[in-house]
């Protein structure tokens, strides 16, 4: 499928160029975010009745993983409220560019211009997730830390350095945004090549220079594009488009594959497996270990998690890739092959997270109704739903949905692996090189099937 | 500039106004939401409440797992059932300052008794409160020392049979709560009045002294308290075979080995409840010792402490009832 330029539609283009819709949505999101922090810190300590837990880890997570990431990629980043206060200070304005703001505007250190920091941040969060996801006060503190770190980063470094290099959520959204069927791209790179002002990167009176430190003229993947639409506003050549495209289009791009992104795929895959075992599995001792932070049991749990995502999964995958190289007599280096084939895990990981999310989202969604009416657990009944009892939804069909999603992910990963093999191989060698990676994906899928569906 | 000002206004209203309104509204709300979960998963949340003397404390209660029940220790307030997915409201009022204990009255799990919380009640009181120390404290009794009975009856003594003997007890024994039945038996046995009586008949007189020092109302109250709070471990018939008892049995643990089953369930080492129908276990203990054990709990046994829950009168009733496992009326 070739891409369809949505911004050819005047209404779509006008809406995306207009600052107000995005600003209003972000302001509402910021109010909700602050309210989540507040309810986490002063609301009821009962997780399933606290706004912060129910709205952040159930409602927001469901929207993010089931709808936004698969269909809009970094759509959440486009309306994320976390960097807003820092941006306002940087820009000296809330809505429109208005001269110099307050920031040291330092360049982000070259050594850290990758997503390793995001990988580490996500891993840290994963280690404590059993507590973060269930205790409102901890959720409140974590969300507050997000806000403070984002603000501090904005005051020291230029643009959205926090989003690009630190945000643990942004890291995996970026990875999975490669499969989304939308993109911001320039229409004609030749126009950019001769456009000396580069207003999309430097900014103009209509908008800021790319907050994500990306030059749209060379943008080929969604990973680092935050869909903020600033380039659509600042391009004086009307050369930026918002396109509808086929799912997974970025995975077909052989260029720009990196080790940090490859490891992100393992981190996400491993975390999905561990979360499934801890939160949905029948192992009480494992649950206790995950919750008992600081104890020897937790330490063992933490080492297991770290071992799985940084050693066992990449190590096994490396063996699979090495076997494929040997079978196909590939001349590509092992490192390059390892990195390239890790991108086959992107659809597999996304589908694993969707399957995992399905298992608790429908089971826990009914907590939304009493929380809406009584978000702080203060005995309110704002919408008359405070006493609605917990009731799981669609539980009879969820296992079938999960099975379908996981099998779909496996097939997608296999097709992607084969396509990656075809970049360097021909004929029978394509299948031979991809086969061990496919086997790896099959084993992972079987494991997830067992964990999630039983 | 107009747009910028409007944006600022919107931010102020949304970002500052909404959370601020919520905080202000909450500060005016006087209903506390109380969630019950089995103790292994956190018990009551929140577990520490505060109240003022003479001011109502409004509670909304719900259970996040199984059926629980809410009651306040040493309070005449009847227990309120706390059901999963349902909300129950109740209002408490305290006329004395102090630290009250609220607890679950349903057998909800092996750690049921740990499902407790406190209400710190502050404020002035018009009454002068006199605190009486428990008897086991004033007598400096060692509650943990073994106290087996050196004599036991061959059949269950009967107060009714004791009455038929026609002995005037006041003249030969004036038992108080510091004496064990065995001690009373020895006292009676050494009296000249009981010279012609058999040992079993003297035991019937011991039963009679017990019965003479209690009332039917107290026994009924003791029975009810026992059924609600003790039978889960000690068993309905006092044999130490309650529904939770099997999980409390002590199992041998090798040093350095994993926790035993009962440690896993209760978080610490426990021992199986004693058999109240075994005369050796019960007839060597005075009422003061039994009251102390109930108040303080059994150190290192898993036996909960009931001091903050029961009134002194309730504990007396309970001890009176315990003797029914040894004596017939």
> How many β-strands of chain B, per DSSP?
9
Main sheet of chain A? 3 strands, antiparallel
Shape of chain A: globular
Overall shape of chain B: it is: elongated
> Uncertain runs of chain A with pLDDT below 50, 5 residues or more?
none
N-to-C CA distance of chain B: 94 Å
How much of the sequence lies in strands of chain B comes to 5-15%
Features:
heterodimer, A: 454 residues, mainly alpha, three-stranded antiparallel sheet, 21 helices, B: 329 residues, alpha+beta, five-stranded mixed sheet, four-stranded mixed sheet, 9 strands, 14% strand
Task: Give a verbal description of the structure.
The complex is a heterodimer of chains A (454) and B (329). Chain A has 454 residues and is mostly helical. Chain A is 62% helix and 4% strand. Chain A has helices spanning 10-17, 19-42, 51-72, 75-79, 84-91, 116-127, 129-132, 136-156, 161-166, 168-176, 189-194, 199-202, 230-234, 259-280, 284-291, 296-328, 334-342, 345-364, 368-373, 398-422, 428-452; strands at 4-5, 182-186, 203-204, 207-208, 240-244. Chain A has a three-stranded antiparallel sheet, with no helix packed on it. In chain A, helix 18 (345-364) runs parallel beside helix 21 and helix 20 (398-422) runs antiparallel to helix 21. Chain B is α+β, with helices and mostly antiparallel strands and 329 residues long. In chain B, 34% of the residues lie in helices and 14% in strands. Chain B is built from eleven helices and nine strands. Chain B has helices at 2-27, 135-138, 159-164, 181-189, 199-212, 216-234, 245-248, 261-266, 279-282, 287-296, 312-322, and strands at residues 31-36, 44-45, 48-52, 57-63, 68-72, 80-82, 88-92, 98-104, 116-122. In chain B, helix 10 (287-296) crosses helix 11. The radius of gyration of chain B is 26 Å and the shape is elongated. Chain A binds chain B through residues 20, 23-24, 27-28, 30-31, 34-35, 38-39, 42, 44-46, 48-49, 93-96, 98, 374-380, 386-387, 389-390, and chain B through 3-4, 7-8, 10-11, 14-15, 18-19, 22-23, 25-26, 29-33, 35, 45-46, 58, 60, 64, 84-87.
């Amino acid at each position: 499928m070739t891409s369809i330029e949505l911004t050819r539609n005047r209404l779509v283009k006008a809406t995306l160029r207009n600052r107000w819709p995005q600003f209003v949505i972000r302001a509402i999101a910021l109010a909700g975010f602050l309210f989540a922090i507040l309810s986490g810190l002063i609301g009821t300590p009962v997780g399933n009745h606290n706004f912060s837990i129910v709205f952040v880890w159930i409602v927001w997570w469901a929207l993010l993983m089931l709808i936004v990431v698969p269909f809009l990629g970094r759509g959440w980043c486009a309306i994320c409220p976390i960097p807003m206060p820092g941006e306002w200070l940087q820009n000296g304005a809330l809505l429109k560019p208005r001269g110099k703001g307050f920031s040291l505007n330092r360049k982000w250190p070259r050594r850290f211009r990758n997503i390793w920091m995001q990988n580490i941040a996500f891993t840290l969060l994963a280690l404590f997730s059993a507590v973060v996801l269930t205790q409102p006060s901890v959720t409140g503190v974590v969300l507050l830390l997000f806000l403070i770190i984002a603000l501090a980063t904005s005051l020291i470094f230029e643009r959205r350095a926090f989003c690009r290099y630190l945000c643990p959520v942004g890291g995996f959204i970026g990875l999975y945004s490669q499969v989304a069927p939308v993109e911001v791209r320039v229409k004609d790179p030749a126009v950019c090549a001769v456009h000396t002002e580069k207003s999309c990167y430097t900014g103009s009176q209509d908008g800021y220079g790319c907050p994500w430190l990306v030059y749209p003229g060379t943008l080929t993947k969604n990973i680092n594009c935050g869909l903020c639409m600033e380039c659509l506003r600042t391009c004086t050549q009307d050369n930026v488009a918002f396109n509808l495209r086929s799912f997974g289009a970025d995975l077909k791009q052989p260029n720009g594959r990196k080790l940090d992104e490859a490891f992100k795929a393992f981190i996400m895959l491993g975390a999905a497996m561990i979360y499934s075992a801890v939160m949905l599995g029948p192992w009480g001792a494992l649950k206790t270990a995950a919750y008992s932070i600081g104890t020897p049991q937790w330490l063992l749990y933490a080492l297991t998690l770290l071992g799985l995502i940084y050693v066992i999964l990449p190590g096994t995958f490396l063996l699979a890739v090495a076997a494929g190289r040997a079978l196909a007599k590939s001349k590509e280096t092992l490192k390059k092959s390892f990195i390239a084939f890790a991108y086959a895990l992107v659809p597999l990981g996304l589908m694993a997270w969707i399957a995992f999310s399905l298992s608790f989202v429908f089971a826990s969604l009914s907590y939304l109704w009493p929380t809406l009416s009584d978000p702080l657990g203060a005995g309110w009944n704002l919408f008359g739903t405070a006493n609605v009892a917990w009731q799981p939804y669609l539980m009879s069909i969820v296992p079938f949905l999960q099975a379908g999603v996981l099998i779909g992910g496996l097939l997608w990963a296999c097709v992607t692996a084969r396509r990656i093999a075809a970049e360097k191989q021909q004929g029978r060698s394509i299948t031979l090189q991809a086969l061990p990676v496919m086997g790896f994906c099959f084993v992972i899928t079987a494991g997830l099937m067992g964990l999630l569906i039983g | 500039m107009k747009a910028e000002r409007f944006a600022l206004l919107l931010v102020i209203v949304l970002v500052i106004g909404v959370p601020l309104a919520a905080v202000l509204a909450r500060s005016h709300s006087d209903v506390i939401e109380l969630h019950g979960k089995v103790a292994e998963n956190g018990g009551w949340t929140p577990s520490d409440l505060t109240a003022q003397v003479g001011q109502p404390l409004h509670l909304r209660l719900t259970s996040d797992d199984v059926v629980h029940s809410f009651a306040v220790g040493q309070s005449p307030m009847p227990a309120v059932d706390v059901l999963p997915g349902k909300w129950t409201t109740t209002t408490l009022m305290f006329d004395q300052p102090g630290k009250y204990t609220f607890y679950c009255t349903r057998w909800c799990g092996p750690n049921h008794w740990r499902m407790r919380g406190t209400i710190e009640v502050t404020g002035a009181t018009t009454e002068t409160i006199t605190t009486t120390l428990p008897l086991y404290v004033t007598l400096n009794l060692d509650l943990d020392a073994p106290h087996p009975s050196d004599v036991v009856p061959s059949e269950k003594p009967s107060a009714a049979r004791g009455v038929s003997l026609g002995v005037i007890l006041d003249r030969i024994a004036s038992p108080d709560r510091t004496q064990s039945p065995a001690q009373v038996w020895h006292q009676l046995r050494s009296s000249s009045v009981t010279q012609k009586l058999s040992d079993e008949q003297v035991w019937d007189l011991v039963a009679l002294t017990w019965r003479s020092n209690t009332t039917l109302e107290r026994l009924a109250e003791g029975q009810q308290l026992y059924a609600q709070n003790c039978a889960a471990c000690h068993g309905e018939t006092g044999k130490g075979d309650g529904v939770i008892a099997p999980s409390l049995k002590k199992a041998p643990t090798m040093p350095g080995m994993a926790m035993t089953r009962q440690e896993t369930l209760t978080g610490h080492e426990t021992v199986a409840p004693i058999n109240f129908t075994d005369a050796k276990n019960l007839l060597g203990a005075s009422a003061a010792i039994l009251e102390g054990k109930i108040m303080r709990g059994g150190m290192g046994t898993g036996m909960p402490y009931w001091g903050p829950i029961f009134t002194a009168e309730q504990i007396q009733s309970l001890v009176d009832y315990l003797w029914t496992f040894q004596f017939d009326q």
